[in-house]
Design a protein that fits this description.
By secondary structure, this protein is α/β, with parallel strands linked by helices. The chain has two domains: about 240 residues, Type I PLP-dependent aspartate aminotransferase-like (Major domain) (Aspartate Aminotransferase, domain 2, 3-Layer(aba) Sandwich); about 90 residues, Alpha-Beta Complex (Aspartate Aminotransferase, domain 1). It has 14 helices and 13 strands. Strand 5, helix 7 and strand 6 form a beta-alpha-beta unit.
Length: about 350
């Protein structure tokens, strides 16, 4: 009996499976009770992350969302506002948690492909008056998911950090895919994140660990974060089994992100040649490819459905926009096959 062919899954880099080295490390991990701070593998992962980012401390959290929301909680006071870009993950995909858990409200501003200008940030900072909610925090996202994996220009980051410092406002980085930016720019993550109060990054996207993210910062802030994590139910016990995979991810999976970027560029260049699709292939900087359908007898949902029926999975954003994300579990041959499938479906659906 012929086995069913595995689909080409380009929905997200969250679908990656742990490597054999990760599975072996998980099986053999030395563990303890992390709520008692006694899990040696978790402690090693936290020390490793802190060292990579040249910070005093780090905290293992179950998800990037929890890491972001813990950071917001420890950097703000109830009644304050948080400035962020309108298509950011924190604003769109974290279920208004900042309002529920921290009692703060978002002040979203429009960016260009997820990047906000320092002058726009300056205009969004609230005047100091007792009847106006004060600005307590600025959040940036690097790379920017909905912007198409855009890398935040370092000079803009430094300008926004300088502005935040001059205004006495904290600043947090949603660096879920910061290692993609680091590899693309050939610069250390510590350099790209210098000046932020806290940084969250994911182990479970392109780095391919099965679970987990990290929050890094000063020792004082991370101790506060540990309390906030516990409040959210994130205090775990023998979690070294998961932390072991995170250590392997940091040790072995960073440099290979270059392959994902090469495959994304190949994908974008191919999409640009398909009639019925529209993309600015030069704008693809890392592993995320966003494109639009144009002149097809279908919307993005139907287009994605027809791709799915042929063994290609992707993520529709709205009625004309779709996203594809490259990762370690798709190779160059998969990308070429994906392009053939898209060309076939477009030919069928052209007006």
């Amino acid at each position: 009996m012929k086995m069913e062919e595995k689909p080409i899954d380009l929905r997200s880099d969250t679908v990656t499976r742990p490597t054999p080295a990760m599975r072996e490390a998980m099986m053999n991990a030395e563990v303890g009770d992390d709520v008692y701070l006694e899990d040696p593998t978790v402690n090693k992962l936290q020390d490793t992350a802190a060292t990579l980012f040249k910070r005093e401390a780090a905290l293992f959290v179950p998800s990037g969302t929890m890491g972001n929301e813990v950071a917001i909680h420890i950097l703000t006071q109830p009644g304050q506002e948080v400035i962020l870009e309108e298509s950011s993950h924190i604003f769109n995909f974290e279920l208004s948690s900042m309002a529920i858990f921290s009692g703060v409200q978002a002040r979203p501003i429009r960016g260009h492909r997820g990047i906000i200008d320092p002058e726009e940030v300056k205009r969004a900072i609230r005047p100091k008056a007792y009847y106006i909610s004060p600005t307590g925090l600025i959040c940036l996202e690097n790379t920017h998911n909905h912007g198409g994996g855009t890398i935040y220009p370092l000079e803009l980051i430094q300008a926004i950090i300088s502005l935040a410092r001059s205004e006495g406002i904290h600043i947090h980085l949603d660096g879920a895919r910061i290692f993609n930016a680091s590899v693309a720019l050939n610069r250390e993550v510590s350099e790209l994140t210098k000046g932020f109060d806290t940084i969250m990054f994911c182990l479970s996207k392109g780095l391919s660990a099965p679970v987990g993210s990290m929050l890094v910062g000063s020792r004082e802030l991370i101790e506060k974060a540990r309390i906030a994590r516990k409040m959210l139910g994130g205090g775990m016990r023998q979690v070294g089994i998961l932390a072991a995979a995170g250590l392997v991810a940091l040790e072995t999976m960073v440099e290979r992100l270059k392959i994902d970027h090469q495959n994304a560029a190949l994908l974008a260049e191919g999409i640009a040649r398909i009639k019925g699709l529209r993309i600015d292939s030069a704008a693809v900087e890392t592993n995320i490819v966003i494109f639009q359908i144009e002149g097809l007898k279908a919307d993005a949902q139907e287009f994605a459905k027809q791709l799915n029926q042929r063994g290609l999975l992707c993520h529709p954003f709205d009625h004309i926009t779709l996203r594809m994300v490259t990762h370690k579990d798709v190779n160059r041959e998969d990308i070429l096959k994906a392009l053939d499938i898209m060309e076939e479906v477009c030919a069928k659906l052209l007006r």
